């Protein structure tokens, strides 16, 4: 039973996910759900670095933005075929992540890695704003074509509609979760876990911490690029505010408040990210203040994140109830 | 003749911004060395110093000295509050929780400032009239006064750390926290004092930048990475190294913006930070 836990989880996710647009047929709501999925994928990729590797990365949205911009520029400026552009949109952040990882992961850990990635994202932002001829500066790239599954000239499906794209995104999310948990269960995943717990001990049993970390980091950046590609083809544009200062905080909120290393937690965190501004819409200017306070409260009191804390309380309560019942039986017998 | 004056002007500009960097970075080094946390809200002490100073001078039309003292005091109180709420509960948990809590506080302060005032940039009108011409560069009296205040503060802090008992206690805590506990130092009190001292220094830096250039709510965010750049590049050891690096960074940045490209000035700073982080993470002036 336990062996198939993940399969049941994914099937459950697929079923529940598919029912949402059917139950609530508001196009805007489905749009919010799609954005939730895109940012959930991005946050899952960040959680590989924060949760699995135990490191920091404050510049993760650089790879997200680069993925979006790459596919956007290639499809609009250079008329590259769609799927080639999508592949490039995943490959370029992957390569960039590889370079950053190779350069920094030999010695930089924790704080230094965070500062390095922050510097990287600032440099990428600067390049985007300055290199006007390529990236259109503050304007961003518009008119990105939607994803189309076609066989030569015969169009199978074109994802130009919120509902259609939502199901595509749902499938993507399920694939990503499957990939990540398969990675965690593999030898590589166990190595990452070992390094996280005690790096020197891991080195002493022969794990090449540098290479393992580079592979994990590159994979996380490639996933972030994939999320960027989804964003570009869904929103049909690639704006420069993807590199904003704010998104660092948001991604950290999603991972810390939602729950690090927990898939449901991170999806929940993405739900919070997308839906909280909608619920707090009444407050308008004071929205971000309330949200910052929420983050502060969560960090101070719910260290592991909302979902794992709730699960822990539930488990404790169930165990307590079980122990109470056993003790009560003993007391009655004697 | 033209060339020299442009060069001299940029050197002077660099010295002015360098003094602000130095005040900011000294506070940050103290926090990083003594509390061993990554304080992401330090830029906000800096910003609040500038904003409160502007409000006192422009809106309430107070005296220069009073405004300076009041804004510094206000930011000191804020520093104490930040320590109490965001830092003290989490200091035993390692780096990440306190970094995230100070990050949340930083956003809280900036968004509150935007909500309760405006997003506009603020300019302080000239208080000290007068200019000097040195090697073709224009040195305004306002700049000189403010730099003098900054330098005096830095000298005072260095003296304080080197000679007084509290200063020695702070240095001891930075060297070895457990040892400090063992010899009976009130380490929690030292933490609080360091936070307040650092925010006061940052506030003075903010006053300098806010009076000479502009003050706007997100100026702390722009400054925090440069502050950490100075801290990392100079290494963790000595305060004079930190101050020297700050001035070096300020001047080279000004020269870069003049002679290479103004847009990419930030790129220069981040590039230097990146290179130092990768090649010599212990800092340029460290012993090993």
Report on this structure.
The complex is a heterodimer of chains A (334) and B (288). By secondary structure, chain A is mainly alpha-helical. In chain A, 75% of the residues lie in helices and 4% in strands. In chain A, the strands form two sheets. Chain A has a two-stranded antiparallel sheet. In chain A, helix 2 (27-52) packs antiparallel against helix 10 (209-235), helix 2 crosses helix 11 (245-258) and helix 8 crosses helix 10 (209-235). The radius of gyration of chain A is 22 Å and the shape is globular. The mean pLDDT of chain A is 83. Chain B has 288 residues and is mainly α. Chain B has eleven helices and two strands; from the N terminus they run H-H-H-H-E-E-H-H-H-H-H-H-H. Chain B has one domain (16-221). The mean pLDDT of chain B is 83. In chain B, helix 1 packs across helix 9, helix 2 packs across helix 8 (187-212) and helix 5 (141-163) packs across helix 6 (165-175). In chain B, strand 1 and strand 2 form a beta hairpin. The longest helix of chain B has 34 residues, at 2-35. Chain B has helices spanning 2-35, 42-59, 64-87, 95-116, 141-163, 165-175, 177-182, 187-212, 219-234, 239-259, 265-279, and strands at residues 131-134, 137-140. Chain A binds chain B through residues 56, 103-104, 107-108, 110-112, 114-116, 118-120, 122-123, 126-127, 129-130, 245, 249, 252, 256, 285-286, 288-289, 292-293, 295-296, 299-300, 303, and chain B through 38, 85-86, 89-90, 93, 95-97, 99-101, 103-105, 107-108, 111-112, 114-115, 218, 221, 225, 228, 232, 263-264, 266-267, 270-271, 273-274, 277-278, 281.
Brief summary:
By secondary structure, chain A is mainly alpha-helical.
Instruction: Give the H and E element order of chain A.
Output: HHHHHHEEEHHHHEHHHH
Q: Give the DSSP E fraction of chain B (strand runs of 2 or more residues).
A: under 5%
Number of helical segments with 4 or more residues of chain B: 11
* Class based on secondary structure composition and strand pairing of chain A: mainly alpha
The number of E-state strands of chain B comes to 2
Assembly of the depicted chains: heterodimer
Radius of gyration of chain B: 19 Å
Q: How far is the first residue's CA from the last residue's CA of chain A?
A: 37 Å
What is the largest interface, and how many residues per chain? Answer: A-B, 35 and 37 residues
Helical content of chain B stands at over 70%
Q: Indicate the mean pLDDT of chain B.
A: 83
Largest sheet of chain B: 2 strands, antiparallel
Strand order of the largest sheet of chain A: 1-4
Overall form of chain A? globular
Low-confidence segments of chain B, given as residue ranges, are: none
- For the report, how would you describe the main beta sheet of chain A? 2 strands, antiparallel
Distance between the termini of chain B: 44 Å
Report the C-alpha radius of gyration of chain A, rounded. 22 Å
